[in-house]
C-alpha cells in the first residue's frame, strides 16, 4: 500500500479524497515510506537535471554561444526574478511546515484553507506585477544589460515580454507541490519540472524554424503551464484547492510571516544575477552564454544531491518538530549532513579531475564549438570550488525551515549576497568570468559557515565528529580524483580524444568508476560509518532494509 502510494499518487487520490489527511500524511512520512519517497524525488530530480542539460545542449546546438542565446539568457532574468521574489522556495519553506503541522494535529480543513488561500494570493499578486513588467520592459532591460547593442537589446525586450506569463504558472505549481509534499505525495511534484523541460526542448526543435529565438520563450510559457497541469489531478482529488482567500486565518498569517524573510532572501539572490548580467553584458558576444552554461553544469550535482534530500526531509522534519520529537529531528538532520558530505566531497574531486571531458559531454554539440567548450572549462573549475557549500545550503536551510525559522537562513543568504556582489566588484576587472564564479563560491562558503555555527548553537549539534570525518572524506576525495585523472589520461592516450556522445560516455564512465572504487576502498580502510549508512539507505530503498527511521552515525 505504501509503495503504491508513493509511485501511484494519481491513481489512489480519488479513493483517499474523503479520508483523513492526517492518516495519509502519517503513513507516507514514516519508516520505509520516507526512503521510497526519496527514491521518487531522486528519480524525478535526476530526470529533471538530465533533461535540463539536454535542454541546454539543444539550445546551444541550435543557436551557439552568440547574440541570440545571450539575449534569451538575459531576458529570462526579469520573469525569473518575479517568480523568485514572490514564490519559488518561499512557498515550500513556509507552506510545508505550517500545513504539515495542521495535518499532524488533525486540522485538515485548516490545511486546505491555507493552501487554497496561498494559491489565489499568488495569482492576484503576480498577474499585475507581470503586467507592469510588460509595460516597463523597454526601461528595465537596458538596466540589466547596458552593454547590449540595439538589435540584441530589442530582442531581449521582446523575449522578456513573451515569458512574463511563466512566473504566474510556476507560482501556482509551486503551491501545488508544497500542498502535495505536505501529504507525503512526491510523485507529481517531482515529475512537473520534467514536463517543463520537455516542452522547452520540443519548442526549440519544432518551433525554431518558424519563430527563431522566440520559440524558446514560447516553450518556457508552455513548460510552465505543463508544470501546473502535471500536478492538477492529485491536487484537485485531495480537495486541496477551493475558491477561498482568508487572509485573516492564523495559519495563513503565520505562513505569510514565514514567507516574507525567505522571499527577501531569494530576491536578494536574484539581485546577484541581475548585477552579474550587467557585468557580463559588457563582455564579448557569447560570454553570457558561456558563464550561464558553466553555472548550470555546477547545478547538476547540487540538484542531484542537496535538493532532493531537502525536499524529502522537510515534511518529516517539520512533523517531528511540531510533535516535539527532538531526538528524531536531530537524527534525521545529523545523518543527512554526514551522508551529504561523504558523497559531495569526493564528487567534487572527481569533477575537478574530469572537468574538460564533462563539459565536452554536456555541451559539445552543434554550434557550440570546441573554442566555446574550452572557454567554459576554467569557469566550471572555479565554480567547483564552491560545490560542497552549495550542496550543504540545500540541506541546511530546510533544517531551519522545519522549525519555522526562515529568518536565520535568510540572514545568512543576505550576508552571502553582499559577499557575492562585493567580491565581484573586486574580482571581475581582473578575472572576468572566473572572477564572477569565484565570487559566487566565496558567498556560498560564508553562508555555510554562518548556518553551521547557528545550527550548532540552536539545535544542539555536536559538529566535532562530523569535522573529523570530513578530513577523512577530503583525503579519500584527493586519492579518488588522482586515480580518475590518471584513468582518463590513459583512456584518452589510446582513443585520441573522443568526439561522439557515446565515445565521451565511454571515457567518463570508466574513469569515474575507477575513482569511485578507490574512494570506497578508502572509506572501508578508514572504517567510516557513513559507508555502511549509505549502503543501508540503498538497501532500504530497494526494500531489503528494516525500514527504520534514520539514526545518527557513531563518531
Main attributes?
globular; 2 domains; mainly alpha; 83% helix; 555 residues; disordered N terminus; disordered C terminus
List the helices and strands and how they pair.
Elements: H1 2-7, H2 9-16, H3 21-28, H4 32-63, H5 67-75, H6 77-86, H7 89-104, H8 108-144, H9 150-162, H10 166-182, H11 187-206, H12 208-211, H13 214-237, H14 250-281, H15 287-322, H16 326-353, H17 355-363, H18 370-384, H19 387-402, H20 407-459, H21 464-495, H22 501-525, H23 529-541
Short recap of the structure:
This protein has 555 residues and is an all-alpha fold. It is built from 23 helices and no strands.
Give a verbal description of the structure:
- This protein is mainly alpha-helical and 555 residues long.
- It has two domains: 2-461, no CATH class; 462-540, no CATH class.
- It has 23 helices and no strands.
- The radius of gyration is 23 Å and the shape is globular.
